[in-house]
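Changelog entry

Holo records now carry the ligand SMILES as an explicit input line rather than a separate metadata file. Below, a converted record for 2-acetamido-2-deoxy-beta-D-glucopyranose, shown in the new format.
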Amino acid sequence: MKLRAIIFFLLLISNWSNAQTVCTAESKQRLESILEALSSSSFANLSPGELNVKIGTLFLETAYVEKTLELPGEEKLVINLTGLDCTTFLETVITLTRITQKETLSFEDYEQELELIRYQNGTKKDYSSRIHYFSDWIFQNQEKGILTDITSEIGGIDYPNNPSFMSENPQFYAQLTNPMYLEKIKQDEKAIQARKYHFIPKENIEKQEKFIQPGDLIAITTPLKNLDIVHVGFAVKRNGRIHLMHASSNSKKVEISQSPISEYLKSNKSQSGILVSRLIF
Ligand SMILES: *[C@@H]1O[C@H](CO)[C@@H](O)[C@H](O)[C@H]1NC(C)=O
Ligand SMILES: *[C@@H]1O[C@H](CO)[C@@H](O)[C@H](O)[C@H]1NC(C)=O
Ligand SMILES: *[C@@H]1O[C@H](CO)[C@@H](O)[C@H](O)[C@H]1NC(C)=O
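Structure line, unchanged by the conversion:
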């Protein structure tokens, strides 16, 4: 009787985890109930953009928590649906959108799809195999056939993209005390710097807004020379204008911007423009 009570207690407090995945019981429960809702929906026929909006909306008001992926030790596939930052919000929604369209809505399908999106070549190895710069994330997920960077097609101009912030500031990244990871990040930065990127400067967003569709991925650029992207989210339409659905570090939750995205960027000196990408299916 006593033993059973102890086992029950252990089950209660234990996080669901294997060697690969870190997911609290609360997150697992939330994910399972979303997967169930999506299984019994008729959403599979919607476009990826429409799905991004529908699924993203399920996460409105979720708490903003950053650095949830930064655990010490070996790299784990972190699934945290109760605390999201701008990137993990985006990855969570896109993962759910893709498995909804494939109609493969199990927890294991979710793990596989998230790993595909989050890691270089779709395989989690160590810390350095995670795609750290978002402009690289866009490029690599385009290579994987997951999305298209449409910025240049909709009026984007050259974006001189030379990120080096991580290798210049290893003190902000606990894992970069490992010289192998630091070296790998430097190589990744070189590869990014050698590519051609485009952006829509914020002064031009209003004019080009008609080409942006609900559910498109919005990546916000910065005038800081050593950084590529400072914020990400999804385009949504409100009263005929494009707004940003995002995990906001200011309001500490997932929300839809009060003002259209062109206004949202105007007042912020750290934000210079946007890259726009669209999921393929
Ligand atoms: C997940 O997010 C919650 C906030 O709801 C936070 O308390 C928790 O530490 C996070 N878990 C991980 C593994 O980061
Ligand atoms: C991903 O694949 C490319 C090309 O095949 C290779 O150069 C690179 O080292 C791989 N990256 C990882 C982290 O395996
Ligand atoms: C301005 O943009 C930066 C980078 O995205 C962000 O961290 C900051 O919170 C923004 N400021 C305001 C007032 O929204």
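Spot-checked after migration. The chain has ten helices and 13 strands. The first helix runs from residue 2 to 13.
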